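Fold this sequence, please.
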Amino acid sequence: MASLTKNRKKVAEKIDSSKVYSLDEASKLLKDISFTKFDSSVDIDVRLGVDPKQANQMVRGVATLPHGTGKTVRVLVLCTPDKEAEAKAAGADHVGLDDYIEKISNGWLDIDIIITMPAVMAKLGKLGKILGPRNLMPNPKSGTVTPDVAKAVTEVKAGKIDFKVDKTGIIHTSIGKVSFQPNQIAENAVEIMQTLSKLKPSASKGTYFKSVYLSSTMSPGICIDIKSIPGI
């Protein structure tokens, strides 16, 4: 506990909580303030000027991070037998249908993402209560319900992520690892921000980007100057 307090003190000395940092400064600083023994995730938190309770102000989308997430994504493809070989060839970790639906019903969830095809979506209905709360239910909007399952697997493995505004109006997602180079962290952040910019609902009035913070696992957030983000 003492070492944790000591580490926090060191971090506090490096971050000026009253300062707004450029994206490039923050991406470099993140590497200096990470004191975990593992390769921490880098997260971005974007507060949007939207009311998620209004259907016409819901912000949800996908982005393909240029440098990936740094995570090994475990993919399950639920498909008909004729698609199994191409799903496996694309890198899916698990491929099948009824056998995996039964495994999930019995509590197996050793996966990060499920990809399926429109023809078998009806079979997944009974899994809604299990998959929904864990954000694992396939959705056409996020590209996880598609006839081209192989392409979807390739994209997810390459760094495609799905994000959605929460009930408080914040987008929270991982955009890399502390082991990334600062320019890789910054470029992944730019990709997310530019994607969010394009998704601005016409019903959203006033300031759209209210605040942006970068953080790593267990580190405090670093406030980003929105004007320092290209294309915003």
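The chain has eight helices and nine strands. Residues 182-198 form the longest helix (17 residues).
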